[in-house]
Amino acid sequence: MQPGTYTLVVSLDESVAVTFGAAGERDLDRGFYAYTGSAFGSGGLSRVDRHRELDRGERDTRHWHVDYLLGHPASTLVDTYTVENENRECELARRLADALTPVPGLGASDCDCDTHLAYAEERADVERVLDALY
Predict the structure, then answer these.
(1) CB of 36 closer than 8 Å to CB of 5
(2) CA 119 to CA 43: how far, in whole Å?
(3) Which of 58, 93, 126, 134 has the fewest beta carbons closer than 10 A?
(4) What sign results for the dihedral spanned by CA atoms 55, 61, 64, 68?
(5) Structure pTM?
(6) pLDDT, tens digit, for every residue of 10-43?
(7) Cα–Cα distance for residue pair 46/17, rounded to 1 Å
(8) Are 71 and 8 in contact (CB under 8 A)?
């Protein structure tokens, strides 16, 4: 599978507290979350399949902050956006955080971004931004 950048759109059907490993607990509102990551290792964008498996309960191991959200029973992975062979992770994460509501300190432990997770109450708001970026 090709390497690239991806954004997962996750629905949270109720307000919950989620513990994101060493990043700690966050109170998350009901709504939609956009998490941006990249996959430039040997498996490339097959990492997205791994996230889907975790969301479906077929996998338990959490490696990335988004895995804690995907593993919560109130969450559902509803859409995925990808771009192959381009490392646009930080650019897209920053633009999403600027356009939506950032959730500070998540998904950005290996860069200088404030976050790679953004929130909107409505799915249409997330999709509008992502459609313009991808």
Answers:
(1) yes
(2) 28
(3) 58
(4) positive
(5) 0.96
(6) 999 999 999 999 999 999 999 999 999 999 999 9
(7) 29
(8) no
